[in-house]
Design brief:
This protein has 591 residues and is of the alpha/beta class. 48% of the residues lie in helices and 13% in strands. The strands form 2 sheets. It has an 8-stranded mixed sheet. Strands 9-10-11-12-13-14-15-16 form an 8-stranded parallel β-barrel, surrounded by 5 helices. Strand 12, helix 16 and strand 13 form a beta-alpha-beta unit. Helix 2 packs across helix 7, helix 13 runs parallel beside helix 15 and helix 21 packs across helix 23.
């Protein structure tokens, strides 16, 4: 019975922050404050408002204190993540709405805070955009912090000894507070690579695996755990053999990382001097400092959707221009690819839109073209950030040439507006298209004629091409980036762009997969845009092979007929070129 109870269990999730740790678990459960509706007498209103104001002020002081600690430990840029929560508390529109309802409806502060903030949360969770969904954890934290302070509750955040934190989710504040203690790693049921907890874990150099779904149901406080932040695995009750394997893996990875030191300042150039652009995919302006340290030569994808978090209205042209200008100036002289809003229609409707399949619905360029005033504000803001000529525009979810032509008409109108106002901008700003819909892949050459460049978004392209929802556990194993249909489609897109003398990049996850690097190089890819954490590794691979040899390897891959054959062949090539690369350590298939 005891053997069964202590049986090794392996859970896989999102490899959110690299590193390996073994130690006892600490099950962190943040009880959500219970909220009951209570009617107020008219003479109780002022006292209730005073309770609200005191709780908000206390919450703000707590967050400011955590922010100060984060600033000391991580630097000002990373600590800015916590400022977003303070800004929610300082939102005059939100607080005004709460106060107004307490007065007019004669209801208690807890109930009104919960109900009002929940409106934001519902809209965010109904988005098909994973990035927007991730931000609900920040909103939840602010709401629960205020509710706890209204009710004078305390929150435990101190560890008795070295522990791996296991929780449903972690807020930025949780992540920073626990780092003051003896935390070995983080494992959560929810969360992804783009979450604030993931970003802070990477900055704090604490291993983290998020999105494990049911870790809290399977782990008990005190259980011995192994956490593999490279492969995204949590091992409950690991055997001695497993622990020894984790230690060996950690040692190999550290040795390889040491060999990557100093590579950040070197060009992404093959042995026969073929230059590639190596850029970073970024979610926040706060990531720029780390991306540059890692050797990024630009931003190949800057997501703009973060500005919509916790807002009832769209950001103004001025607000957007301030953000984009800051990003462009910090990256100068390197190029910055700003992707226009890749949002669903739920962001533009006061009531949630009921779409049977929003993934195939009103999103990306479709929304922008149907809302010209919003799109024009957006384009003018991007143009205003382009005065130093290092900004490019990237259009998402394009499926036909007419969408590109219409977007170009709006770009011309935005330029004319700024000329009239005497605002400086890059009159020759480049505009490109994300090839992430099969129709766009088929029409890649026609689209290339209309644009300055193409950028392949493999995450969506592979899902659409293979009819696989990688979020569906029943079929997610069939999401295969080395499927021959995917490889041949990539070849067709790259060749189509080059026939029109247009640059072709890739900003999907495949660009950051070391096993795919030689193949993509050989197919003729001009730019790799990847998560900052893998920049040195991808550069090392590019600098270890000749371009003409990579082309021969790609030609061979195009003759193979299964994803297993392709992956095995590419892995063998990589081991031959870089014998010291810990390829098995980066592979998740053995979990």
């Amino acid at each position: 019975m005891s053997d069964e109870k202590n049986k090794e269990i392996i859970l896989t999730g999102v490899p959110a922050a690299p590193g390996i740790a073994v130690g006892p678990s600490y099950l962190y459960s943040k009880a959500v404050p219970k909220v009951h509706q209570r009617a107020l007498a008219p003479d109780e209103v002022e006292n209730e408002l005073a309770r609200l104001h005191a709780a908000v002020a206390r919450s703000e002081r707590e967050l400011q204190k955590i922010h100060s600690f984060a600033e000391q430990k991580l630097g000002a840029s990373n600590a800015k993540i916590l400022e977003a929560q303070v800004m929610i508390l300082q939102d005059a529109v939100l607080m005004g709405a709460i106060e107004k309802r307490i007065r007019s409806e004669l209801k208690n502060a807890e109930y009104v805070v919960y109900d009002e903030v929940s409106k934001y949360r519902r809209l965010m969770m109904e988005s098909e955009d994973e990035y927007i969904q991730e931000r609900t954890h920040d909103v939840d934290d602010v709401m629960n912090r205020v509710l706890r302070n209204i009710q004078d509750q305390k929150l435990v955040s101190r560890l008795e000894g070295e522990s791996i934190i296991v929780s449903h989710s972690l807020t930025p504040a949780d992540t920073v507070i626990f780092s003051r203690n003896q935390v070995l790693g983080y494992a959560t049921d929810h969360g992804g690579f783009t979450s604030h907890a993931a970003l802070l874990s990477r900055s704090l150099k604490i291993p983290a695996v998020l999105g494990l779904r049911n870790a809290t149901a399977l782990v008990k406080s005190g259980d011995i755990l192994g956490i593999d932040g490279y492969a995204g695995a949590l091992i409950i009750n690991p055997t001695e053999e497993t622990i020894e394997g984790l230690r060996r893996k950690e040692q190999r990875l550290k040795e390889f990382e040491k060999k990557l030191e100093g590579i950040a300042g070197l060009p992404a150039e093959t042995l026969d001097h073929k230059r590639c652009e190596l850029s970073a995919n970024l979610e926040f302006a706060e990531e720029i400092e780390f991306a540059l340290k890692q050797g990024s030569q630009g931003i190949g994808l800057f997501r703009t959707e973060s500005q919509l978090i916790g807002r009832e209205t769209f950001p103004t042209e001025d607000e957007q221009a301030e953000l984009y200008t800051s990003v462009a100036e910090q990256m100068f002289p390197h190029p910055v690819m700003i992707r226009s809003f890749d949002i669903g229609g739920d962001k533009l409707s006061p009531e949630p839109l009921q779409e049977d399949n929003p993934f195939l619905g009103w999103r990306g360029i479709r929304v922008c073209l149907d809302r010209p005033e919003m799109f024009l504000d957006h384009l003018r803001a991007i143009l205003r950030a382009s005065a130093k000529k290092n900004v490019r525009i990237l259009l998402p979810m394009v499926s036909k040439v007419s969408e590109v032509r219409k977007a170009k008409e709006y770009l011309k109108q935005a330029k004319d507006d700024l000329k009239t106002r005497g605002v400086p901008f890059d009159h020759h700003i480049k505009m490109g298209v994300m090839i992430e819909v099969p129709a766009a892949a088929v029409l890649a050459e026609e689209i290339a004629k209309e644009t300055d460049f193409l950028s392949i978004g493999t995450n969506d392209l592979i899902q659409y091409l293979l009819a696989i929802d990688r979020g569906n556990t029943l079929v997610s194993s069939m999401y295969q980036e080395f499927n021959p249909a995917v490889v041949r489609t990539l070849k067709q897109i790259i060749d189509a762009g080059h026939r029109q003398s247009k640059w072709v990049g890739m900003c999907g996850e495949m660009a950051g997969n070391p096993i795919a690097t030689v193949l993509l190089l050989g197919l003729g890819l001009d730019e790799f845009s990847v998560a900052p954490i893998v920049l040195p590794e991808i550069k090392k691979i590019l600098r270890s092979i000749k371009f003409k040899e990579a082309k021969r390897i790609a030609d061979k891959v195009l003759t193979l007929q299964t994803e297993v054959e392709i992956k095995d062949y590419l892995a063998s090539v990589l081991r031959e070129k870089l014998p010291d690369i810990p390829l098995e350590a980066l592979d998740t298939s053995h979990y």
